[in-house]
């Protein structure tokens, strides 16, 4: 049985360049079966994780106009009008505001859970419990976020400082902190006072619209025009005008960090942002030498490698498939698709985006 009066907005506009060559412009990371989500796509796993909490008729997916077709194909059970096509990328505040405005047309007091489409949660039951707890907090009129209890001194995430406990399992937000140095991250971890910012937000539609009106008044005025045009022949033009004219800003900078009263619910449900091939290796099953590789890969004196063979599978010529072999190497990432091959040290996983940048600079856009 689903929670009453709760909507979900899935943010699915990312490009996923750190997962090149698997992730491409028209089939980015969230549409791929990466990590433990396989054989489901990451976005498919995200929708499945919401089952029992949010009815599929109450799910909205915000994505780029060029990705709607591919995203809809991954989520065939969602209604046709569940997909919000962004004409251009303007970060998260505009699309969250747009979604909140549409929900408010149905019920201004409805609770909205905003979450990324490309994260992993190992324990779906605990995930739903934490979201339900955040929803109860949001029903009190307080915008609420979910913070991940840190397991290591991570320097790649923003942090949320916990304040006093306002109710069972819910804290006031004492502040947001940018990505810290290693030394500061270790201090955060040891203090027990900080959480990773997972980018999951829960609020009543009316409260988010009020916050946008307070902190981003020009955006708010444009959102009211979009809402007024909803369901009319002028809607498409209103959406285009809104995205062309509004500022590009994240919900974190535009709203969350400016609000005086926020709540946070700490969560431990096996979360990962699946940000790179390194995190895919961390979450994948491995052999006794620490290798994550498909069946048939030859591994000789090789350890702690990840191999992804993503070439097209032919059922007519099963023996024509190329063998991938690693000999005497450690800590490599090897990814092969039909038209590209990536080989790099695992600890350089964050630098894959530079490959995509170089391809664009040399007019090889077809490979991005």
Structural class call reads alpha/beta
Please provide the ordered H/E string of secondary-structure elements.
EHEHEHEEHEEEHEHHHHEEHEEEEEH
Strand order of the largest sheet: 6-9-7-8-10
Q: In CATH terms, what is the fold-level topology of the largest domain?
A: Spore Coat Polysaccharide Biosynthesis Protein SpsA, Chain A
Please outline the major beta sheet. Answer: 5 strands, mixed, barrel
Percentage beta strand: 15-25%
Low-confidence stretches: 314-320
**CATH level-four homologous superfamily name of the largest domain:** Spore Coat Polysaccharide Biosynthesis Protein SpsA, Chain A
Report helical residue fraction: 25-40%
Number of domains: 2
What's the overall geometry? globular
Q: What is the first-to-last residue Cα distance?
A: 42 Å
Radius of gyration: 21 Å
Residue-averaged pLDDT: 93
The count of strands amounts to: 16
Question: How many H/I helical runs?
Answer: 11
What is the second-level CATH architecture of the largest domain?
Answer: Alpha-Beta Complex
CATH C-level class of the largest domain: Alpha Beta
Textual characterization of the structure:
By secondary structure, the chain is an alpha/beta fold. It folds into two domains: 6-272, Spore Coat Polysaccharide Biosynthesis Protein SpsA, Chain A (Alpha-Beta Complex); 277-367, no CATH class. It contains eleven helices and 16 strands. Helix 3 (92-106) crosses helix 6, helix 6 packs across helix 7 and helix 7 (217-229) packs antiparallel against helix 8 (235-245). The longest helix has 15 residues, at 92-106. The protein is globular and about 60 Å long. The model is unreliable at 314-320 (pLDDT under 50).
């Amino acid at each position: 049985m689903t929670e009453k009066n709760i909507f979900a907005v899935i943010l699915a506009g990312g490009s996923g360049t750190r997962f090149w060559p698997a992730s491409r412009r028209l089939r980015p990371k969230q549409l791929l079966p990466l990590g433990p989500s396989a054989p489901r796509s990451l976005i498919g796993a995200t929708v499945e994780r919401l089952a029992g909490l949010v009815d599929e008729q109450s799910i909205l997916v915000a994505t780029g106009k060029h990705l709607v077709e591919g995203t809809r194909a991954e989520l065939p059970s969602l209604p046709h009008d569940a997909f919000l096509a962004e004409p251009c990328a303007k970060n998260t505040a505009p699309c969250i505001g747009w979604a909140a405005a549409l929900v408010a047309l149905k019920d201004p007091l409805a609770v909205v859970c905003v979450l990324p489409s490309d994260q992993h949660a190992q324990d779906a039951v605990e995930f739903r419990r934490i979201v339900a707890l955040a929803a109860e907090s949001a029903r009190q009129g307080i915008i609420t976020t979910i913070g991940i209890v840190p397991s290591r001194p991570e320097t790649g995430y923003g942090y949320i400082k916990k304040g006093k406990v306002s109710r069972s399992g819910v804290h006031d937000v004492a502040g947001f902190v940018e990505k810290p140095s290693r030394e500061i991250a270790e201090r955060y971890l040891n203090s027990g006072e900080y959480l990773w910012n997972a980018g999951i937000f829960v609020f009543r539609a009316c409260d988010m619209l009020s916050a946008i009106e307070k902190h981003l008044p020009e955006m708010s005025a444009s959102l009211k025009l979009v809402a007024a045009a909803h369901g009319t022949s002028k809607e498409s033009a209103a959406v285009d005008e809104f995205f062309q004219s509004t500022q590009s800003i994240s919900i974190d900078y535009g709203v969350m960090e400016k609000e005086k009263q926020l709540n946070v619910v700490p969560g431990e449900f096996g979360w990962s942002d699946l940000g790179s091939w390194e995190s895919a290796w961390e979450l994948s099953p491995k052999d006794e030498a620490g290798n994550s590789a498909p069946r048939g890969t030859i591994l000789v004196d090789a350890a702690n490698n990840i191999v992804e063979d993503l070439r097209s599978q032919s059922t007519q010529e099963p023996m024509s498939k190329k063998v991938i072999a690693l000999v005497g190497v450690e800590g490599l990432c090897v990814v092969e698709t039909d038209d590209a091959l990536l080989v790099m040290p695992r600890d350089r996983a964050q630098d894959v985006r530079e490959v995509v940048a170089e391809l664009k600079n040399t007019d090889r856009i077809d490979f991005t």
